[in-house]
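Consider the tokenized backbone below.
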């Protein structure tokens, strides 16, 4: 229904991050079927846009050929190497400050131009068409147990609402830590916890679409299993996401973003 605040979830732009698909589809099922009053509140008070698998060709390839494939499957002109890193392909400081490569054989190849990939182009056009309704943009990734906020392209500049992004990060990580699993997430900017990453979807949503709550969530684990996280962790990871999300949305309401 029009008029409700909307939340966008982009999942599996990186093909090998299988826990993101499982968690996104688990979460959709919760929204549709759960009797839990907090979940019903989420389902009924917001418009949800969930793209459970953005990089569909890459995801298929991780089943048929290479479990650890990351990029899209588009051929590149003048190279035998296939694919682009979708999360370096957005038109936000594209290829400016590092963390992305101009070499098609690299895992972090940024593409021949911003939005060279059909996946990122279609996503960006759709998000742009609904941007005025969107209060929150989330991108699901793995692994590391991080909640990351802008900017990814620079360590020098901070986003204008950094304090709020931090405060929301605090409640997200505490909600997860307080569960029986006791899992620890950290929060911070992408460069502070990982590395510079220019041309990411979350930077684009924040800077170009003016969606002031934009986060990348890096799910379980911290490296023991890495991208080949056993299926037994799907439910715990999903439950943590749900608890974190309830806290995040609550705090966003407190701070008048919704
Ligand atoms: Zn990723």
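A designed sequence for it:
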């Amino acid at each position: 229904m029009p008029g409700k605040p909307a939340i966008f979830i982009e999942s599996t732009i990186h093909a090998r991050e299988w826990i993101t698909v499982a968690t996104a589809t688990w979460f959709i099922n919760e929204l549709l079927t759960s009797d839990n009053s907090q979940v019903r509140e989420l389902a009924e008070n917001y418009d949800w846009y969930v793209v459970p698998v953005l990089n569909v060709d890459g995801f298929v390839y991780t089943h048929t050929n290479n479990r650890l494939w990351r990029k899209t499957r588009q051929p590149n002109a003048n190279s035998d190497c296939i694919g682009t890193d979708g999360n370096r392909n957005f038109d936000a400081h594209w290829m400016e400050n590092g963390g992305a490569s101009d070499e098609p054989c690299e895992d972090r190849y940024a593409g021949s131009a911003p939005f060279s990939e059909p996946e990122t182009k279609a996503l960006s056009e759709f998000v742009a068409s609904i941007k005025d309704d969107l209060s929150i943009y989330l991108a699901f990734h793995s692994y590391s147990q991080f909640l990351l906020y802008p900017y990814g392209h620079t360590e020098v500049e901070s986003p204008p609402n950094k304090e709020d992004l931090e405060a929301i990060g605090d409640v997200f990580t505490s909600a997860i830590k307080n569960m029986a699993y006791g899992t620890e997430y950290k929060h911070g900017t992408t460069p502070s916890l990982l590395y510079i990453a220019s041309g990411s979807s979350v930077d684009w949503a924040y800077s170009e679409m003016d969606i002031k709550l934009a986060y990348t969530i890096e799910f379980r684990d911290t490296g023991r299993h890495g991208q080949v996280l056993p299926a037994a962790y799907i439910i715990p990871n999903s439950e943590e996401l749900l608890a974190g999300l309830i806290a995040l949305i609550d705090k966003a309401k407190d701070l008048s973003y919704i």
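The mean pLDDT is 96.
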